[in-house]
């Protein structure tokens, strides 16, 4: 009798657990559809006519007929290849330089012992709470004094010098999670601090390197306000800047959707390629002690 009751209870428990798991999966699928739908609609609309966008049901994501006319119109308005090249050029150079500067600074704050280390770190982190709009006028005045107005160097220098606080924080927190025994063993073998950094620390920091690279690539590729102030010639514009200015007078939504697809694809591809490292770094950064 007792065995029968225990068996019924166990069977009931398994059934409830399976039902809850099914409901959870259904909810997660629904949530993914809700999140992904705007992106799918934008991508599909880039291959539709303006008439199709406004007269067809928004649920219909399949372009019929499929057209590339929107991209041809964009090519007539802008030099797409040059703008995309400028965007990629900046989105590669800035992350690389930012990785070098921020990783070295973070290693000094995480491992080297000197007076005022914690004070410097606190002051550095406090700059993350200052809105970037506050520093626009001082930065602009500095770039004018340096003769870098209407130059990509103004974007590069500002991004490296004022946008590295987050990167330094992520690197420092990740470096603290690396066992000191690895460094001590290398130092005993005669390795210098620079050797420890380049041979031990960086090779074991791929997740945070990927994270900083993704975040810096995204912010550089999507940057609008500062480039719109500094870059006055169209030959220097990035695609994001050109698309934003296009949206101010272009009335055809289909053309704007085509431009949005061009803007989204690089970030989407970069994230898909490095998403494993990105997730690993987010799990391991920010939860370790000093």
Outline the fold blueprint.
Elements: H1 2-45, H2 50-55, H3 69-77, H4 80-110, H5 117-126, H6 136-146, H7 152-162, H8 165-176, H9 180-188, H10 193-201, H11 206-222, H12 225-230, H13 239-246, H14 253-284
Helix pairs in contact: 3-14, 4-7, 4-8, 4-11, 8-11, 9-10, 11-14, 13-14
Describe this entry's structure for a reader.
By secondary structure, the chain is mostly helical. It folds into 2 domains: 2-45; 79-284, Orthogonal Bundle (MetI-like fold). Helix content is 74%, strand content 0%. It has 14 helices and no strands. It has helices at residues 2-45, 50-55, 69-77, 80-110, 117-126, 136-146, 152-162, 165-176, 180-188, 193-201, 206-222, 225-230, 239-246, 253-284. Helix 3 crosses helix 14, helix 4 (80-110) packs parallel to helix 7 (152-162) and helix 9 (180-188) packs across helix 10. The protein is flat, with a radius of gyration of 25 Å. The termini are far apart. The relative contact order is 0.13.
H and E order = HHHHHHHHHHHHHH
Biggest sheet features:
none
Shape: flat
Query: Number of folding domains?
Result: 2
What integer value in Å does the Rg equal?
25 Å
Give the C-level CATH assignment of the largest domain: Mainly Alpha
Number of separate strands: 0
According to CATH, the fold-level topology of the largest domain is MetI-like fold
Mean pLDDT: 81
Q: Could you name the ranges where pLDDT drops below 50 across 5 or more consecutive residues?
A: 285-290
Structure classification: mainly alpha
Distance between the termini: 59 Å
**Helix coverage percent:** over 70%
CATH architecture group name of the largest domain: Orthogonal Bundle
Share of β-strand residues: under 5%
CATH homologous group name of the largest domain: MetI-like
């Amino acid at each position: 009798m007792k065995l029968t009751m225990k068996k019924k209870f166990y069977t009931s428990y398994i059934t409830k657990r399976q039902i809850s798991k099914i409901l959870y999966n259904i909810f997660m699928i629904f949530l993914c559809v809700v999140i992904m739908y705007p992106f799918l609609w934008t991508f599909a609309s880039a291959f539709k006519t303006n008439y199709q966008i406004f007269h067809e049901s928004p649920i219909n994501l399949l372009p019929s007929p499929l057209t590339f006319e929107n991209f041809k119109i964009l090519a007539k308005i802008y030099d797409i290849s040059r703008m995309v090249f400028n965007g990629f050029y900046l989105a590669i150079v800035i992350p690389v330089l930012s990785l070098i500067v921020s990783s070295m600074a973070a290693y000094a704050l995480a491992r080297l012992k000197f007076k005022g280390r914690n004070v410097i770190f606190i002051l550095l982190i406090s700059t993350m709470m200052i809105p970037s709009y506050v520093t626009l006028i001082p930065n602009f005045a500095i770039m004018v004094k340096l003769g870098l107005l209407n130059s990509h160097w103004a974007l590069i220098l500002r991004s490296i010098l004022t946008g590295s606080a987050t990167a330094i924080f992520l690197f420092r927190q990740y470096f603290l999670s690396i066992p000191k025994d690895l460094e001590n063993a290398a130092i005993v073998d005669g390795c210098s601090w620079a050797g420890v950094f380049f041979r031990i620390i960086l090779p074991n920091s791929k997740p945070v390197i990927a994270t900083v690279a993704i975040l810096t690539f995204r912010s550089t590729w999507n940057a609008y306000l500062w480039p719109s102030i500094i870059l006055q010639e169209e030959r220097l514009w990035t695609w994001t800047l050109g698309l934003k200015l296009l949206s101010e007078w272009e009335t055809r939504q289909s053309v704007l959707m085509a431009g949005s697809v061009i803007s989204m694809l690089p970030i989407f591809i970069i994230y898909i390629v490095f998403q494993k490292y990105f997730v690993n770094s987010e799990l391991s950064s920010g939860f370790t002690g000093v």
